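#struct-help
A.M.: can someone run this one for me? Single chain, 204 residues.
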Amino acid sequence: MLRSNKLKIAHFRADYATHGDFCDVFKNDTKSLYLLAFLLTANHKESEKCFVSTVEDSFKEHAVFKEWARSWVKRKLIENAIQIVWCGSAQNGQKRPRGTSQYQTERECKIDNVTKIDAFERFVFVLSILERYSNRECSLLLGCSMNEVTQARMRALYRLADLVTPFPRGDGLPVCRQLGRTSSSSFTSVRSGRSSNHDVNISE
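D.P.: on it. Structure tokens below:
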């Protein structure tokens, strides 16, 4: 009877994610995880710190089911990004350096536009639109109300619309884009895997 119980416990523990399972997640999703960290922190130094901290945390964790390893890693990375950005903004109020190159691809410009949004609005935009977290999940992670999440998402969309370079018309005058159609649909397609001439693919 005792031996049977031990076998059941061993089999149950076998369903937990191992170091190898976490290594597979980081190996297969390195680009998308790092890009997520960069979009949240808006800084390469802090995104690297966030990524490394997440790797270290995963190797310390022993109670994550194997099927949940990837989602756990992503959530832990988001939590680490929140801690890094919030702690960083509380110290001296220093602005984060943004080294932008004059020669950027359209994809890089899209990413750079997201990093220019204020921290709170940027987190809400990335979590609710790119990662499709619900308002409730965002509010729990960010420690705010669901109404604040909704308002921050709208501010982020307006801000992105202002940052987008207008298309020239035939007579040389700029043409304004529609906020809802351009900003939300373009960036929402990042998560769904659809891409167009104006999309940023986070999983690329």
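A.M.: thanks! Strands lie at 167-168, 174-175.
D.P.: also worth noting: The two ends are 52 Å apart (CA to CA).
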